Amino acid sequence: MKIATFNINNINRRLPNLLAWMRTAKPDVVALQELKASDGEFPAAAIEKAGYGAVWRGQKTWNGVAILARNAEPILTRDSLPGKPGDLEARYIEAAVCGIIVTSIYLPNGNPQPGPKFDYKLDWLARLKRHAKTFIKQDLPVVLAGDYNVAPDTIDIYPTRSWDKDALIQPKSRAAFASLVEQGWCDAIRELHGDKRVYTFWDYKRNRWPRDAGLRLDHLLLSPALVSRLAKAGVDKQVRGEDGASDHAPAWVVLK
Q1: Measuring CA to CA, which residue among 24, 229, 72, 44 is closest to residue 32?
Q2: By CB neighbour count within 10 A (0-12 exposed, 13-18 middle, 19+ buried), where does 238 fall?
Q3: What confidence tens digit (pLDDT) does each residue in 44-89 have?
Q4: Left (φ > 0), alpha (ψ -120 to 50) or beta: where does 12 sit?
Q5: Is pTM beyond 0.70 here?
Q6: How far is CA 244 from CA 10, 24, 218, 247, in A?
Q7: Which of 10, 69, 108, 208 has the fewest beta carbons closer than 10 A?
């Protein structure tokens, strides 16, 4: 079972890129982020024609998350992160697919920091940790997939000082991510790639893609119930170099 996460950065604008990648990579489940489309603007017909069922929560002009399943209909279990009923940003969705719970997470960026946007990021991470703990307690098979907007360690960002003040690599951001993982989650890409530099995001600015000046922001965390099934993990880096590409590339795991 191949499960991928992909910040598509506007699903309608990048729809040809998404469909071409799905035809080639054949993921069984895809967690999408940053749809930048309202619920009614989601390209459900094109996704269905490609052989995928879908659940989604859109948001006009910004945010938006979805879960696609090949030759299956994902069963929606939650379309928002619990803990703050007044939070209306479309950043979390989860669904059951073939006996596994898969999330699509679009964690807040947090810039500029310090400030209310960074506080929101840390609060969102704390809420995610509380929710994730319920999965651990129940020993459920779960993949926490998504764009976390956190580069967990120095190896997850190209050698530079230009991002030092960015919310993506602040000590508090990294500590919150580490605290989540320490509940018992397995960072699949780091588990299988060790100390190798693996990136999932290359900013459009400053020639960062040609220079391979990337960051690893997109993660797939496996619950203890799934760790023994982890067979492969990687990033389809070439997708970032295509015409009209998102600034992210799909990251994925294969479960045996």
Answers
A1: 44
A2: exposed
A3: 999 999 999 999 999 998 999 999 999 999 999 999 999 999 999 9
A4: alpha
A5: yes
A6: 11, 17, 20, 9
A7: 10
